[in-house]
Amino acid sequence: LDIANAPQNGAGETSALAEKHLVQPWPVAGSIGAEARGAIESGDGIYVVDGEGRRLIDGPAGMWCVNVGHRRAELAEVLHDQAMALSYNSPWYTTNQPSAALAERLAAHAPGDLSHVFYTTGGSSAVETALRFMQFLNNVRGRPEKKLIVSRQGGYHGSTYLSASLNGRPRDHDWMDSATDQVAKLACPNPFRRPAGQSEAEFCDRLVEEFRALIEERGPERIGAFIAEPIMASGGVIVPPEGYLRRMRTLCSEHDILFIADEVVTAFGRLGEVFASKAVFGLEPDMITFAKGVTSGYFPLGGVMISSRLLESLRQSNHSDAMFAHGLTYSSHPIGCAVALRNLDILEDGLLDHVKAISGYFQKRLKSLESLPLVGEVRGMGLMACIECVADRVSNNPLTLDLEVGKRIDRHCQELGLLVRPLINMCVMSPPLTISTAQIGDMVAILDASIRRAMDELVREGLWKG
Ligand code: PLP
Asked: Could you tell me which CDD domains the record lists for this protein (predicted)?
């Protein structure tokens, strides 16, 4: 297939039908149920083709998920072959080979004693599972008051009720209910936004101190879990200060608070490792949630790695009849697990090494965009990065700037051949892991030209002094 000339039939019809009948994710009231989002027609490698036939670099790899790239024949074959062998079995009372084989391989990659996995249908259900497991554990252990969940401002953990209650990005809760009585939020560990005059080390001390104070205030006997993305992804690729995660882990261990690492984005190669917690951050969590890259988006699958120590403590409890009343029809789905096994082969067969080899170049080239006056900071790690725009570089203030500046940059990028995931004043880059140095060069050149265009526009419209 020559994807540059891929057929575009029906793109207009797709959008029209969507506008008439689809309720899209994250809509605003003014256009809910009546919104036409641009069609994507096909994909190949790091590229997708949109409804107008334009070939675009898939900057966000879908939603941080198409890690091995689009149109992998070996994954398509597995989807077909597994569907023909066994398309589904009930995990309530049977088991299938791919889920067991995958569990063994995931356990071999997971840190510490995280030797078991509970499969879900995606990231939200993985986080929800981890939280319900913590609640169940503490109920069985006879301490039903130890349930409070601690998350952070800027974090994102999902769209089910309890997982969404943990979210801390702007606008996440403006119009939505949440379980406020079950959640406490700490400050965002964003070094770029630390108080003026504070060193990064001092900033880190303050963050750890804040957690210590919260534990003291609420009482360790009331706090069940701390949940953190090792690098906050959709909050803007926030890389925490050195040592922060390990120190938060220590506090958790001291007070018997479970540390849940939400690796929905950071696992499966994004940082060059299958799981990043230990390998990149020196961290051994009690649970790790994952999704997205586990199947590179070819099938909806997620899961929670769970410490064998916790499972053993349940088996040894004096409530052997206590039921963990939690399970999904599609837990341990044979097709999802078969795809994940093949996806893991691809990662282990050179792709993780490729990420390790190319990440430095990726970060260095993107960092060069900091020479543009609209760019306040380019930050990131591995193959994830964020370009944050600011109105002026002294105050780093994004608020006086047109807050939709990310969307402007995205529009110009799309004209030039790059799909961006704009987040207010930020552009997030997390391309398929197969990206080459030449393709990174193309990506950065398009970003550079598009930011320049956006700067000209903002000055012309009187929104920015330049
Ligand atoms: N956790 C993190 C860190 C995420 O980035 C996401 C999705 O973006 C989720 C959880 C929720 O995953 P899903 O959308 O698959 O339910």
From this structure: OAT_like
